[in-house]
């Protein structure tokens, strides 16, 4: 997953189809360069959408409906294209940060890097551990 | 006023510009536009697109009104119609050359129904002095395509299309090969895979090859198409003499054709037929391909599947970045930088 944008207390994250997460799940964003962590919670899931992407999907559907398709795609671009069409965005709320001593903190005034951040799902058991500390 | 005063103090009189303008243009244009345009039929241009008047230019503008109109009778049967189209885009530039992407589409129909289509590509071509040195491209042509990306794109598209046409013209028999654009030989073609060889293959296999142009550079053809715009059935006019007098490298028979009834457009069509029977070839095309707004559905489909989508372009760039060990440079739109953010 990658961070796309921030608006107030919310972040928009880009995810591929294989990166499974659901509404209510917690995610941890680890900024490798700044050595800081942020805990966010998914509250909505949408398709990555743009006007040209929708136009491409409609055009392809019309073409496929009109005749049988045969592909010769040596660079496998159509698969990449399908991945983009199936990409989704997660809208998440910033819930907390994790300080250097691995404790939950409410210092969420910093911005994680879009380039150097790793995002992964946070298990409830991990969250419980953080709460105990 | 202030500006005028300032110019005058610089020794420049704005009225002089008008004189200079008049002198420079009056050599080729009528200075009296009102008089020159009086009573003329006029059609305004839009974004330099090729437009045609819906009802034609009228009989007054038609000096070749004696060219006969022949109606086309659809011949329904099992003739296969294969339409080919392709497109090329420039993906990237390096210090030494340019990277291009090409996509082709082949659509096949029988009995008025499109059966299947083939999407070929996208495929990448990198043209640089080094890659061209290893190819069989003539060195003068190589210089041209390295200097001008439009030529390079045209050459790639043409050669890819010819390769597909060669294959189809050999494999199919008693079929129709539909080509987007006129049937003319080009310096950009490969010697062994040119339009004449495709035409020869077609003759051997008893295929017809039909090139359909969506627009023509020859304004005279627009002017003489009036009888066809008025007719309510599919028909054609033979304009072979006119086209051959204007351009040498065309092959086949040049016609103006209206494929559907009513307000469908009149198109320039070049036909190569095995037995010189253009009526039969056009009839078979009408009977075995459906016409959408007076244009063959297969050719329309081939066009749509050969066009690059924005997603594909992004994917191609991503493919190059992740597979070709390249270093991406930040770029800027020089025109936007110089002229500002107002669209120009």
What can you see in these coordinates?
The complex is a heterodimer of chains A (133) and B (344). Helix content of chain A is 26%, strand content 41%. Chain A is α+β, with helices and mostly antiparallel strands. The longest helix of chain A is centred in the middle third of the chain and has 16 residues, at 51-66. In chain B, 35% of the residues are buried. Chain B is globular, with a radius of gyration of 25 Å. The longest helix of chain B has 23 residues, at 149-171. Chain B is α+β, with helices and mostly antiparallel strands and 344 residues long. The mean pLDDT of chain B is 83. Helix content of chain B is 38%, strand content 23%. Chain B contains 14 helices and 11 strands. Strand 5 (68-72) of chain A pairs parallel with strand 4 (113-128) of chain B.
Question: Short description, anyone?
Answer:
Chain A contains 3 helices and 8 strands.
Mean pLDDT of chain A, to the nearest integer, reads 88
Strand content of chain B: 15-25%
**Structural class of the helices, strands and pairings of chain A?**
alpha+beta
| Low-pLDDT segments, ≥5 res of chain B | none
Q: Give the strand tally of chain A.
A: 8
Instruction: List unreliable stretches of 5+ residues of chain A.
Output: none
Q: How is the main sheet of chain B built?
A: 9 strands, mixed
Count every helix of chain A, treating DSSP H or I runs of 4 or more residues as helices. 3
The oligomeric state is: heterodimer
SSE diagram, text form:
The complex is a heterodimer of chains A (133) and B (344).
Chain A: E1 2-7, E2 10-15, E3 26-31, E4 36-47, H1 51-66, E5 68-72, H2 77-85, E6 88-98, E7 104-105, E8 117-122, H3 124-132
Antiparallel strand pairs in A: 1-2, 2-6, 3-4, 3-8, 4-6, 6-7
Chain B: H1 2-9, H2 14-26, H3 33-37, E1 69-71, E2 80-93, E3 97-110, E4 113-128, H4 129-133, H5 139-147, H6 149-171, E5 176-180, H7 195-204, E6 208-213, H8 219-224, H9 226-230, E7 235-238, H10 240-246, E8 253-258, E9 266-272, H11 278-288, E10 291-292, E11 295-296, H12 297-306, H13 310-323, H14 334-339
Parallel strand pairs in B: 2-5, 5-6
Antiparallel strand pairs in B: 1-7, 2-3, 3-4, 6-9, 7-8, 8-9, 10-11
Helix pairs in contact in B: 5-6, 6-7
